[in-house]
Amino acid sequence: MNALVTVDALQVAFATDSGPIIGVQDVSFTINPGETVCVVGESGSGKSVTALSLMRLVEFGGGTITGGALSFRRPDGQVLDVAAADSQVMAAIRGNEIGMIFQEPMTALNPVFTIERQLTDGLILHKGLSQTEARTRALDLLRSVRIPEPERRLRQYPHELSGGMRQRVVIAMAMACEPRLLIADEPTTALDVTIQAEILALINRLKREQGMAVLFITHDMAVVAQMADRVVVMYRGRIVETGTVTEIFETPQQDYTRALLAAVPKLGEMKGKPAPEKMRILGDDAAYAAAKPVTARKPEVLLDVRHLTTRFPVKGGILRRTVAQVHAVEDVSFTLNVGETLALVGESGCGKSSCGRSILRLIEPQSGEVWINGRDIGALGPHDLRRARADMQMVFQDPFASLNPYRRLRDQVAEPIQNFGLAQGQALRDRVAEIFDRVQLPRAFMTRFPHELSGGQRQRVAIARALAVNPKLIVADEAVSALDVSVQAQVLNLMMELQADLGLSYLFISHDMAVVERVAHHVGVMYLGRIVEIGPRAAVFDNPQHPYTQQLLSAVPIADPRRRRFADDLSFKPITSPIFPLGHQSAPSVYTEVAPGHLVLQS
After folding, report:
1. Burial of 597 per CB tally in 10 Å (0-12, 13-18, 19+)
2. How far is 222 from 123, CA to CA, in rounded Å?
3. Residue-range domains of the chain with CATH
4. Model-level pTM greater than 0.90?
5. Closest CA to 84 of 99, 100, 71, 73
6. Which of 22, 117, 257, 372 makes an SS bond possible with 252, Cβ 3.0 to 4.6 Å?
7. What pLDDT, in 10s, does the model give residues 123-153?
8. What are the DSSP calls for 76-101, one per residue?
9. Within 10 A of 369 (CB to CB), how many other CB atoms are there?
């Protein structure tokens, strides 16, 4: 009777070229004040559709609530039928009484407004604060989500922030008006484990202090174990099982739930095993299969990075002159062999993505050398660089931002094949269809647009596009972070099969330590633009030497609700800025070899 939210027999349909599709059907659950309900399931199971229906935002994505009731108890005790409420009432509720953290931060933020404008607009509208009061509150919010130099971040635009920082801004926006219900749709997908732990602790604190209810959508079962009071398991638009978090983890009743839990990669499972090793597919009872070994030939270096340095200008003053520099990548050196995977791990903003983009010259490094397949990439002119891009491709972090919203998916996958003249006509169409098959997407999706797919499905399209030209090197920037455990396993197994068959090399940028442990041959840990520790996977994971590596591994959440971490258990380190004044000369990176191939940065 006192439930804050009641969802009763919800049904949502989407109109497509091939007829209506039922997104969710007969979905029912409640959320009480101060309670966290986690919704889990595969990509496309209807998790996000259910959440968007509660905000009545599903209508803006082509969906229609065709059945059921959505009840929300307002502060005065009146129960509002969300499905029947008019637009003015919903505008007053969105962002004020119901906050939402969206899955893709770049599309949730307005690219033409500053971070300050986007944080303060809701506070001024809903809370009646003055501009000065709203700005002060915005600064406090950025500090609470652990963003360094919040005063400077307020003046920046979304494209100037890393993916993880953008996600933290979206989290701050959702919590700005202290909503009674917080809908969190994959809120920690783009965050490293240390920031994730802090954000989860922050949400728990708000829940405890303000009685805020949380609808938490995730595919990370370890996060579910840390956050949930109750769990709702969804599959193909329906609920297959509900229960307390302890019941779901310890005595799951449905085969699907058991398979979901079994498919979750766990840190430490690879101890004493060779890498890489294939992931378990959801529903597959077989044990993890070892990936095909790399052909036993003499290691051949494909990628050689020497003293790579990338810095970004910080503008200031009336004339917008450069007053300082962000040392995004600082004196980074490593090699990557043919047919192997090097994983770069570290917290949001540490320079992982900037390093990957600098290697491909998507951003120009300040100094250093990058050699790919014996060619100096930095010395290539525009024409030669374009031809070289057939050998090096990138899978970006945000699939929606990297796909063209106005073109059908088949055309976007075919485009790189056409650009390099690899196929045309029927051969091109057959090649595109084959690629869709390989990334586990139905051929019917070829005629769809990006907005018609779930986040995980969009990421598979982005991966398909990178694989289209058979490159030698793929820089995968958080390529599987948006995927549920089943699709993640399929995509990673596919990448490992292609690596064994074609000799592909991967620079795998990730914050998921359990996935990295399973797929990487070598691991480099980055902090403030530098590699602080690098070596074979087993050496780094089994014997971490640098304090930051040790902290990173200790912050990984455990998929056991009886071993929860609370805010009091976390030691939050002070935020260090990578910004230095003009002319600052950083010390060179000097390493100590603690074991063969295992290097640790000297402090």
Report:
1. exposed
2. 33
3. 5-262 (3.40.50.300)
4. no
5. 71
6. 257
7. 998 888 999 999 999 999 998 887 888 998 9
8. TSPEEEGGG--HHHHHHHBTTTEEEE
9. 15
